[in-house]
Amino acid sequence: MNIIIPVAGLGTRLRPQTWSKPKPLVSVAGKPVLGHVLDRLLALPIDKVVFVTGYLGDQIEDYVRQNYRFDATFVEQKEQLGQSHAIIQARGEVTGPTLVVFPDMLFEADLEQISGLTADGALFVKEVDDPRRFGVIEVENGRITRLVEKPETMVSNLAIVGIYYFRAVEDLFDAIDYQMAHNIQTKGEYFLADAIQHMIDQGTHFTYLPVTVWEDCGNPKALLNTNRYLLARLGNHVPDIPGAVIVPPVVIDPTATIRNAVIGPYASIGARVTIDNSIVTDSIVDEGAEIETVMLTRSIVGRDAFVRGYFMQVNVGDSSDITLAGGNHTEGAQPRD
Q1: What is the predicted pLDDT for the residue at 336?
Q2: Which of 59, 89, 95, 270 is least surrounded, with the fewest CB atoms within 10 Å of its CB?
Q3: Distance in angstroms (rounded) separating the CA atoms of residues 110 and 29
Q4: CA–CA gap between residue 186 and residue 263 (Å, rounded)
Q5: Residue 251 forms beta bridges with which residues?
Q6: Could you give the CA distance from residue 96 to residue 101 in angstroms, rounded to a whole number?
Q7: Are strands 31-32 and 27-28 parallel, antiparallel or unpaired?
Q8: How many C-beta atoms surround the C-beta of residue 188 within 10 A?
């Protein structure tokens, strides 16, 4: 099994976190989103993983090389022309059975179902209450007949989650060639759904497979909700940190320094973080950040950021230096070097 993972997007909905790191490396529940996705893919017999990189792609390669041992190749999407354009950059790197996975979400699914398929391909889907916010599939006798983007009426409640299986990825590449040659675009981009629809119209047999969990990581609110979900699954282990009150569920890296603080519930504290005289709940604090005399909730603090002051909600990008005004504790405070 080969896997194509497009990771070239700019991640504009997650700014300021994505100004200095690619979206798949934004942290949630103690590790990058990409790490959670790759861990779930390890259940497959992987031949090769092709990462289609772009903005800050060297960080993606460094992370994968340092943490995973499968055969990985990195190709660059030099122009942001859409999903199909990203995927076709993998031509020449993979053939045969291939999974395409967009790593801006977390999922739980029995991926081994793929091995028993007789269809030409499959889309992984999740039943949703309101399909108007998603791309959905229409089905007849277990066979996908049409892909519909954000339907205004109830045509289906089976939402496409961003995982696609192709028994012969060469057929997908040919469909993308057709799509681009005929300039078939949606909102000015080459979307994968249009290439797959062309394959369906030409007689390709696609079926669908369920995911049991689908958690979005595409914006700050969704990222924090996914953080809560993952931490809840970890249980109520409480690390022993003298001088701190820990309210599970939490993830606290062992290299973090916590003094006179309350951490949790639903807090993710990264490596080398320092927290003094603060309360941090329902938040993500990435590696190297410093938190001093604040109450943070529903907040995201990027790598090496510095936050001090009093209660507020923040979404602080990497390498920021923030001093919150107000209160006697700020008098005479000096900026960090």
Answers
A1: 53
A2: 95
A3: 22
A4: 45
A5: 268
A6: 16
A7: antiparallel
A8: 7
Q: Is residue 16 packed enough to be buried (19+ CB in 10 Å), middle (13-18) or exposed (0-12)?
A: middle
The answer to whether 252 touches 246, Cβ cutoff 8 Å, is yes
- β-partners of residue 207 are 122
Closest CA relative to residue 41, chosen from 84, 8, 4:
4
> What is the residue extent of each domain of the chain?
2-220, 239-330
Query: What residue spans of 182-334 are helical by DSSP H?
Result: 192-201, 220-234
Q: Name, in order, each residue with C-beta under 8 angstroms of 250's C-beta and a sequence gap of 6 or more.
A: 231, 238, 239, 263, 264, 265, 266, 267, 268, 269
pTM summary value: 0.87
Q: Which two tokens stand for residue 286?
A: 């990435």
DSSP string computed for 83-109: HHHHHGGGBTTB-SSEEEE--SEEEE-
**Backbone conformation region of residue 123, classed left if phi is above 0, alpha if psi is from -120 to 50, else beta:** beta
For residue 305, the 8-state DSSP code is: -
**SS3 of 231, please?**
helix
Kindly report, residue by residue over 64-98, the tens digit of the pLDDT.
999 999 999 999 998 889 999 999 999 999 999 99
Q: What is the pLDDT of residues 177-231, one digit of tens each?
A: 999 999 999 888 899 999 999 999 999 999 999 999 988 887 898 899 999 999 9
Range with the largest mean pLDDT of 100-104, 176-180, 220-224, 313-317:
176-180
> Peptide bond preceding 16: is omega within 30 degrees of 0, i.e. cis?
yes
**What CATH architecture does domain 239-330 belong to?**
3 Solenoid (2.160)
Closest CA to 150 of 167, 133, 169: 133
Tokens of 250: 């939490």
Distance CA 104, CA 214 (A): 11
Task: Specify the long-range contacts of residues 323-330, CB closer than 8 Å, at least 24 apart.
Answer: 324/294, 329/293
